[in-house]
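Appendix C reproduces, verbatim, an entry submitted by the partner laboratory led by Prof. M.T., so that reviewers can inspect both the input and the predicted structure.
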Amino acid sequence: MRQPRRFQRLRMGVPRLPGKALWLVVRANRLDWDAAVYDAILADLARWQAAGNDLTGLQIDFDAATRGIDGYARFLADLRQRLPRRWKLSVTGLMDWSAHGDPQALAALSHIVDEAVVQTYQGRTTIPGYERYFLRMEHFPIPFRVALVEGGEWAAPPMLARHPQFRGYVVFLLNRGTRAAQKR
């Protein structure tokens, strides 16, 4: 039996960081959201912006299976319609999307999201052999950032700086069992 839907805020209060571009990150374990979940997220976005923050948008942190990108794209298309246009939509993505993802599903996703943050780590360590995945990203159709884990091993593949969709890095900071991200 599935657990009931619930929305749990992991951050108490609203940040106040004027002059810093912020993303509201929502970690999702499932995609069958109800109206209450959408309403809570949209209210949080409005509160963060009303507090004087430069809110860039919403990032969905969901482990979408490579073979399930088309279903994920349908969920995100619905979310995009609910999200006011002033905010961008970002998603985390697996490196495997570039190697084994359906090109048509990825192309559809590129019309829905503003960027993907490609995760190069699992848990607290860099995934061994990450370089092989980047060799297959030549035709990746979505603007992307590369997510690194604080203290993880990383040597940028030579093609990365030349990739027309590459937008920089996100470093996931390790802090007493929680994680926070910093874009650079």
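The mean pLDDT is 89. Additional entries are available on request from the coordinating office.
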